[in-house]
Task: structure prediction
Amino acid sequence: MRFSTALLLLSGVQAFAPGFNGRSPVQELKNMAGDVGIPCEDECALDSFPNLPPSVHPGVLSGQAMMDLLDHAKQNGYAIPAVNCVSNSGINACLEAARKNDAPIIVQFSSGGSQFYGGKGLDNSNYRAAIAGAVSGAFHVRTMAEQYGVPVILHTDHCSKQLLPWVDGLIAASERYFEKHGEPLFSSHMIDLSEEPIEENIQICKDYLARMDKIGLLLEMELGITGGEEDGVDNTDRPVEDLYSKPEEIYQTYNELKSVSDKFTVAAAFGNVHGVYKPGNVKLEPEILNNAQAYICDKLGDAAPENKLPVSFVFHGGSGSDVSDIQRSLGYGVIKMNIDTDTQWSFWEGVKNFESKYHDYLQGQIGNPEGEDKPNKKYYDPRECLRAGEVNTVKRLEQSFADLKCQNILGLGEATEAKNVLGPRRGSLPV
Result:
């Protein structure tokens, strides 16, 4: 029997009876575990979370469930960490950290990260490697987010004008996925045309938003310039005034995009800089966001929302920022904060510390302080150093969850300790 035929028959059975994971027939069909026939137990089998709107469920969110989660963040004064990932180890560390902090998380891929996920040996003409890599990563996130029992927004990061064919390929993948599953493959995409004239930036974003809204995708757009350098984009020499958005520009953007759909967020510039800097060197001005919200509410008059926060803002370039500035921004409508530089370091630091701890066992396949004929296989097995990177990243992300007031959000309580997790030859090393 062909695999596709088997899945079709399985779906037919599930349409008439609850699946093995206890979900209703409709939920079962939209559940990744149900689609491929893998176990879905404990938190994975939940339909919703005690402390969140009923639409928010374990796994990747899109459409109304995603909007309900983001609205919950805004109403309750927290932001969701959005972590750039380039491997399944990075993704798994994010999911583990989310469950440990009883919180949602955003997993995101850049174009370069997507290409790396697809493999540097694959030709990237017409962004084929970046498209394939992001799609591959999306299926990994969809499969494992349910297993960890946490809600995830699956996002792609900065996409400049020249990279639009990359996002076109991903939206097309989501449209095909939507035809079969009733939801997009991804949750959201960022289009960063901040280097283009504002009228062009807004018009292109409106065109994309109209297409994306049809299948429940959210658009993140950028106003102003995020300083520093990331993923090959260098803004270190841009004029200082470009690092701060104006209330009039934010209102213009809000007004134009709102006429198409409410599924958008704005990465406004308030002194943000990519990269890592000594504390005090990044001059954030979160009050810019507050002023913009007040300006827009004044323009909206009686139509302004009750919470006086019409715009959902995204915080880019936060490494080295003072925690007080970060937490002040949460009260001004920031619901997502990007994290990349700090988790790059945390993963490397975990690997580095592992090498330092077991240095004498990593100099050859045979021979170590315990004897010249002693094998070192369990020390140089890649799983060991990669796990060390994961553990250190989970620890670093706990700080991010705390800074963003994004802990104990789901209402699941403390995570149960994983069992049967020993590594190479069932004798995993303590990291």
In short: Residues 1-29 have pLDDT under 50 and may be disordered.
